[in-house]
């Protein structure tokens, strides 16, 4: 069971089951817990965190036992996402924890990943269960409807779920409208029916002033 204590600490209650979380994110626990460090590479959660473009890897750990374990990541805001057989697409750096029963992997992002400097692949989490994602500031959840496509700055994008298609627009950014843009840049266009998670703080990007 995932639950929030405040908005920056995740509490996971376990009765013999397991959870996988970002390595080093455990801040406290009670009861009897066993910790196993997993490294990048291979399939599943270990494979999904390998940045294919930069070669950067993020390690994760599996926590199993009876009791409660608390997780946090650099005082980032934490958001709970419930999956009911659908798929969540999330930047690997923003995935804090996931139920062990959720299937995880990678999917090709192409231009979006390159524009953010995150590589060409992003994380997928699929199945029935809960995941916890982080954001720099309180995340905003935006609805995408068939008649209302959504345009998002790549630097603010965190995750999306539902029956959503994404494409890329080049040559203009939100800052361009303010006369602050410079160079080639990109936006993400979402169409369909689903949710998009954005943060109120832009990460650094490498494809123009995004």
Can you give the mean pLDDT?
80
Please give the number of β-strands.
Answer: 12
Number of domains: 1
> Nearest-angstrom radius of gyration?
17 Å
CATH fold description:
Double-stranded beta-helix
- Tally of individual helices: 2
**Any idea what the CATH architecture is?**
4-Layer Sandwich
Q: What class would the helix/strand composition place it in?
A: mainly beta
Q: Estimate percent helicity.
A: under 10%
* CATH homologous superfamily annotation: Mitochondrial biogenesis AIM24
Which CATH class?
Alpha Beta
- Uncertain ranges: 40-56, 112-119, 206-210
Outline of this structure?
The chain is mainly beta and 210 residues long. 5% of the residues lie in helices and 56% in strands.
Write up this protein.
- InterPro entries: AIM24, AIM24_sf, Trp_RNA-bd_attenuator-like_dom.
- This is AIM24 family protein.
- It comes from Streptomyces tropicalis.
- Pfam families: AIM24.
- A hairpin with a 3-residue loop joins strand 1 and strand 2.
- The chain has one domain (2-198): Mitochondrial biogenesis AIM24 (Double-stranded beta-helix).
- Helix content is 5%, strand content 56%.
- The chain has 210 residues and is mostly beta strands.
- Strands 1, 2, 3, 4, 5, 6, 7, 8, 9, 10, 11 and 12 form a 12-stranded antiparallel beta sheet that branches.
- It is built from 2 helices and 12 strands.
- Mean pLDDT is 80; it is low at 40-56, 112-119 and 206-210.
